[in-house]
Every structure is written in structure tokens, then in C-alpha cells.
Amino acid sequence: MADKNFEARHLETLDRDLGRFSNLEMATANIGRSLIGPGIALVFIVLAGFAALLFLGHENNALIVTIAAGFGAYMALNIGANDVANNMGPAVGANALTMGGAIAIAAIFESAGALIAGGDVVSTISKGIIAPSSMADSAVFIWAMMAALLASALWVNLATWIGAPVSTTHSVVGGVMGAGITAAGITAVSWGTMGAIAASWVISPALGGLCAAGFLWFIKARIIYRDDKIAAARIWVPVLVGIMAGTFAAYLALKGLKHVLTISMGTAMLIGVVLGVLVWLAMIPIIRYQSHGLENRNKSLKVLFGIPLVVSAALLSFAHGANDVANAVGPLAAIVSASATGNFTESVSIPLWVMLIGAFGISFGLFLFGPKLIRMVGSQITKLNPMRAYCVALSAAITVILASWLGLPVSSTHIAVGAVFGVGFFREWDSERRLRMAHLAIPDRPRLAPNERRRRKLVRRSHVLTIAAAWIVTVPAAALLSSVIFLGIRLIAS
């Protein structure tokens, strides 16, 4: 009997020890998985540096350009991790796309936009923030651009880590401003341009939110709240898809293809109108066919908006790749040119190998780190369905075109996230309005307690505050980081 008790205790001890080993193995595996993404990213950064060394190993400042190429690759990875979520988040949150499908589509269209229609000429000083003549020489200019590139990448990396979608354009602007002030003094800054950028912190989300809320109101009033929803959808969904097609045609003509063809605002609008009318007419029989046999309820309407939403997300990714790749590789191209020629006061061309770093970096960043921000934008701010997500995507394109026409400085990131906020706050307002109407119709109906009304809020206030704070501090934070990094580079170089 004693032997049996000893054996039982021995087996129990062995089971505990094996359990500890099992937990240790699981923890090791989880740590290993968490290091895969950063490991691949580090390999890409190193390969980008080797690419620069391969192409420019015989040039002056080859080591500096190699390091700058690594910084540019790091920035491109962060753009993919943070900025692309604004285009894909609504489609994923609405369940129109899986996470894997969204990443695949975004990677293809971001890369295509960067390589086909990406900026072939950029100013040596981003957005005209710093007067080129204020720089003492090409060496100081190169140090400033390197500091700006690394500082903006670090800030976007931090924002992604805390789950805040921020403007990478504003990050670059802040980086250039901070390094420029440290290198040439505060008078070198174009404060008028900075004031316009500060104004965009309010203009961008407000325009995006109002536009998205307006479209959602239209869909609710003309389709969702109708007695025969399917009949109403057959009339208005082709119109909405036509508006989407026309808007994106004008958007891509004006913004996405501006480096391939020079197109005026009037021509872009004419292209949009013509294509919009053609798509509207083509969609009438298609929507009629899709809606055949659908039940007269809101859930059935989601089917009709699914494909237009996926197409809009792909087109937004193409336009984003065409425009924002310069945030990653513009300063790098300026460093390459200044290192080779010593000239830093004129516009420079972006070499193909530099464009490839930007395009592939955005795709790798999206694949490795993008899901976190995609979930944030798509489902954690407010609940989205295909109709609401469609309003977000359409308002993003319309707002950019409207702002370009009016000459207003806007951020595509702020517009898209502002549109998500606009949809959520409109849903809250509409819910409150319908509740008041119900009480007017039935005065004796019990009212909700204040805590229950707060619980039913449809936009998470904590995310609103986090994102708004990140937007406000982006430029000064990137500027401060850039200033410190510039001083460190100058100290090392001297």
C-alpha cells in the first residue's frame, strides 16, 4: 500500500513537472512568434541598405546613403503598418473582406500605385516647410533629412504600438521642421504653411465626418427606412455606385495619376461625370439581378454593397500608394541626390530602386503589423456594416477632391478616421431621434435611465480621445525627436 502511495505521489510530481515544461514550451513558442515580424522587418531594412550600397557603393557618402536607405525602409514599414489601415479597416470591420483578403488586396494595389503612379519628382524639403537656402551646406542638409526620416518613422511606430492611426505626412513634416529649426534657426520655418497644416487637424476629420454622415443619412432615409427596401435599393444603389465610380475616377485622375499625366481639376471632374453615368446605367440591371429573391430586411441590403465596398478599398489603396510613398522615399531621394551632386536646392528624381524600397516596405509593413490598426479602424471605434463602411470609403475620396478644389490642406488619414467617427456619431444622433419620436407617439413609455443611455453610446470615447491626442502631438513630437536625432548625428559627424 505504501508503495502504491509513493508511486501515485511520484506520478503526480512528474505530471506537475511536465506541465511546467509544457507551459515553458508554449511561452517560448509565443515569444518566438512575436519576434517573427520584427525579425523579417529587420531583414528587409538590412537588404534595403545593401541595395543602396550595391547601386551607390562607388559614390561619395556611400555609407551615409546606405544608412539613409535603412531609415527609408523603416519608414515605409511603418506607413504600411499604420496608414493603410484607414483604407482596409472599414471593409474588414463590415465583414466584406477577411483580414487575409484585405492584406492581399492592399499589398497589390499599394505597390501598384507606388510603382505605376508614384511621385517621380519631389521637393528636396518636404512640403516647403524649410527654406533650402537656410541650410549651410549639403552635409547639414543630409543630416537634417536623415534625422527627419528616422524621427518620423519612430513616431509612427510608437503610434501604431499604442493603436492610434496618425498622419504619416504630418510626421514627416514635423521631422523636417524639427531638424530644420535645429540646423538653421526658427526663422527658416514657413510658419504660414505650418498654420495651414495645423488647420487641417480640424478641417480633415470634420469634412470626412460630415460627408460620411450625410451619405449614411441618405441611405437610411431613401432605402433602410422605406417599407419596400428592395425596391428602393434597386433605384438608389445604382446611383450610389455610379457616384462612387465617378468620384474615384476623378480622384485617381487628379491625385493618383498626377505624376503620369497632367490633368486639370475640370478635366478630372469631366472624366468622373462620364464614367459615373456609364457605371450607373450598367449597374441598374446588375442590382436588379442581385436583389432578385432577397427578403425585405436590412440584412439583405448588405449583399448589394459588398462588392462596391471591396472595389473602393482597392482603389483607395492604389491612390494611397501613389501619393504617400513619397513620405517614405522622398527624403531618401533627396539624400541620394545631395550625396551624389552636392545640390540640395532643386527638385530631384526618385530612382527606381528607391521607389521599390518604398513600395515593398509598405506591403511588408501591412502584412507584418497592419492587422492591429485595421481592427482598430474597422471595428473598435464603432460597429460598421457594408452600408456604413461604404459611406466611409466614398466620403474619403469626395473630401480629398473637394479639399483639392478649395485649396485646403487635408490629411487622408484624418479624413478616413473622421468619416468613421462621423458614421458612429450620426448613428447615436439618429438613435436618440428615433427614441424621442417613440416617446412622443407613446408618452407613457418608460424612459431609459442615464447610465443605460451612456452604455448605449455607439462610439467608444476612449478611442476618440486617444486618436485626437495622437493627432495633436504628431507634429511637435516628431519635431522634438528629429531635433534630438539631428544633434546626435552632428555630434557624431564632427
TrEMBL record:
What residue intervals traverse the membrane?
35-56, 62-80, 92-118, 138-160, 172-192, 198-219, 231-254, 260-282, 303-322, 350-369, 389-406, 412-429, 464-493
Which keywords appear in this protein's UniProt record, sorted alphabetically?
A: Membrane, Phosphate transport, Transmembrane, Transmembrane helix, Transport
Q: How does it sit in the membrane?
A: Multi-pass membrane protein
Q: Which Pfam families is this protein grouped with?
A: PHO4
Question: Does the keyword section mention rRNA-binding?
Answer: no
Task: Give one GO molecular function term.
Answer: phosphate transmembrane transporter activity
Listed under GO cellular component are: membrane
Share an example GO biological-process annotation for this protein: phosphate ion transmembrane transport
Mainly resides where?
Answer: membrane
What domain of life is recorded for the organism? Bacteria
Please name the InterPro entries in this protein's record. Phos_transporter
Which family is it part of? Answer: Belongs to the inorganic phosphate transporter (PiT) (TC 2.A.20) family.
Protein name per the record:
Phosphate transporter
